[in-house]
Amino acid sequence: MQAQLQSLDTSIERRIHFLLRSTEDALEFDGPNVVEGLSSTPKRLSSVYVYDKRGTELFELQCGTPEYYLRRVETRLLNSHAGDIVRQCGFPAIVELGAGTAEKTRILLAEYASCGAHCDYFPIDVDLETLAVCARRLASAFPLVSLHCLGTTYDKGLRAIPLHASPKLFLFLGSSLGNMEWREIDVLLSRLFESGAHGDYLLIGADLDKDPMIIDRAYNDSSGYGPRSTLNILHHLNQRYRGDFIVDNFRYRSRYDSRAKRNEVRIESLEHQTVTLASLACTVSFDANEMIDAEVMLKFDPDELAAVLDRAGFAMVRRWIDPVYRYGLFLLRHN
Ligand SMILES: C[S@@+](CC[C@H](N)C(=O)[O-])C[C@H]1O[C@@H](n2cnc3c(N)ncnc32)[C@H](O)[C@@H]1O
């Protein structure tokens, strides 16, 4: 029994490789960017700092709230259409941007497994701790999956995908594409295009414009997990840069701008205060009620999104849109 367990453990470990495990200085939004963001008007902090182990746990709790329809609806769409996706794409290597806990990726991996197909899976994520735990869980649940983990940013992860990993299905779920400004989306899509080859696929989960009440509720859940996950930016900065943010001195603010089709999340300073990030030699003053731009959640128009993707070299193959919650899965082919 002991020997069997040991050999199972070895088989799991053998199928997990870390291609990149960046330390903090490899983060795209590094110390100088934090200082620059806190010195600008209005002040801003990158949402990438939501995600350390604690931030991901809070995000997962938010995903389980009744108000946060995004996870529920995307899971439903994937459960209904995983078979169609695999029939269309075959069994390519999967490269996932912002894999997180990869809960929904399991639906696709189960589809591969049910056909007895091997899968080379390349999860990219800045949250190294979550990535390591998730890799072990997947390797143990799916004996035909080999994991090639990239603990880094989207851009650096995509650059590090080996050329022999082809054909590929790029996955970008959770409407994480909407956590970027349009100019950043253009840059990322051109990086994705360069990382792929003719015949590769891209599957995007994207939240669509809808009744603002539904969106407002999703980002102001009654359990408070959404607000706490955003405020985790301050905890994370305290840890990473020896900071002294007193998190209770700040408040979460979320507002949907239906004209611009974007939910904007800010962190409000509740009083006049000064904060130091010792390792960045940075001291910043906040006025009472001063806002820090922290997160954006774009809510797409499906045709506009298709046009942007088309310009970036990805042709629409299929799209599945939930008619009630207006959330879409978009399957595209690299031209
Ligand atoms: C909104 S969560 C989505 C997680 C998961 N894909 C889902 O659909 O539930 C975004 C994930 O992307 C990761 N992430 C955010 N910005 C990133 C970046 N610039 N590079 C790499 N990973 C990033 C976070 O750590 C987090 O796991």
- Secondary structure: number of strands: 14
Bound molecules: S-adenosylmethionine
Proportion of strand residues: 25-35%
Instruction: Tell me the radius of gyration.
Output: 20 Å
Give the helix/strand layout.
Layout: H1 2-14, E1 16-21, H2 31-39, E2 43-44, H3 53-63, H4 69-89, E3 93-97, H5 105-114, E4 119-124, H6 128-141, E5 145-151, H7 154-159, E6 168-172, H8 182-195, E7 201-207, H9 212-219, H10 225-241, E8 250-257, E9 262-269, E10 273-277, E11 282-286, E12 291-298, H11 302-311, E13 314-321, E14 327-334
Parallel strand pairs: 1-5, 2-12, 3-4, 3-6, 4-5, 6-7
Antiparallel strand pairs: 7-14, 8-9, 9-12, 10-11, 13-14
The protein binds S-adenosylmethionine.
How would you characterize this protein structure?
The chain is an alpha/beta fold. It has one domain (16-99, 106-158, 166-244, 299-335): Vaccinia Virus protein VP39 (Rossmann fold, 3-Layer(aba) Sandwich). The protein is 40% helix and 26% strand. The strands form three sheets. It has an eight-stranded mixed β-sheet with strand order 1-5-4-3-6-7-14-13, sandwiched between helices. Strands 2-12-9-8 form a four-stranded mixed β-sheet. A two-stranded antiparallel sheet has the order 10-11. Helix 3 (53-63) packs antiparallel against helix 10 and helix 4 (69-89) runs parallel beside helix 5. The structure holds S-adenosylmethionine. S-adenosylmethionine (SAM) binds next to helix 3.
